[in-house]
Design goal:
8 helices; single chain; alpha/beta; seven-stranded parallel beta sheet; 7 strands
């Protein structure tokens, strides 16, 4: 693994512990000599993870749609800021640039991104590992929903297992780095 895509909130939330988490994850990515790929913003947890990585001497690639850049939300201090046409192009470019994916706390956009990238695994579009940082139980209800989907027969167990949940950032990043090269499933 050379590059890690991080999905996270464009807000910092109410609890400052989440901002500190994002800064720490950014630093950890730099310490592990990985390249951070993220949504290109300077606000919220997105800005915090980028700043943490940059402060620790890491390389950061931001990918942001022009309409968000026009609203002055882009992080102009990153190593490489790529401005794209729209959200679809953003997600495709982030996926192409990344070897693995990690969701930190966030809102519906973060949830949508990690679910979509796992769906791409299920459909055989890529075989890259996907993690969910369940810090302080943030994603407990999401994990329970996935289990409910499996219990009710809508989600196969093997697809549920694509989501690698963990509560320790370093352990989860290491797990993603050491994952089988191709985690794709045969779609059936």
């Amino acid at each position: 693994m050379k590059s890690l895509c991080v999905y996270c909130g464009s807000s910092s939330g109410h609890n400052p512990v989440f901002r500190e988490l994002a800064i720490g994850v950014g630093r950890l990515i730099a310490q592990k000599e990985l390249r951070l790929v993220y949504g290109g913003g300077h606000v919220g947890l997105m800005g915090a993870v980028a700043d943490g990585c940059l402060e620790a001497g890491g390389e950061v690639i931001g990918v942001i749609p022009g309409h968000l850049m026009d609203r002055e939300l882009g992080h102009t201090g990153v190593t490489d800021l790529r401005i794209v046409k729209d959200m679809h192009e953003r997600k495709a470019m982030m996926a192409e640039l990344s070897d693995a994916f990690l969701a930190l706390p966030g809102s519906v956009g973060t949830l949508e991104e990690i679910v979509e990238i796992v769906t791409w695994v299920v459909l055989g579009l890529h075989g890259k590992p996907c993690g969910v940082l369940n810090f302080q139980g943030y994603y407990d209800h999401f994990a329970a929903l996935l289990q409910k989907m499996t219990d009710e027969g809508f989600l196969k167990e093997k697809y549920q297992q694509i989501f690698r949940f963990g509560d320790d950032p370093e352990a989860l990043i290491d797990e993603l780095a050491n994952a089988d090269e191709d985690v794709s499933c045969k779609w059936d």
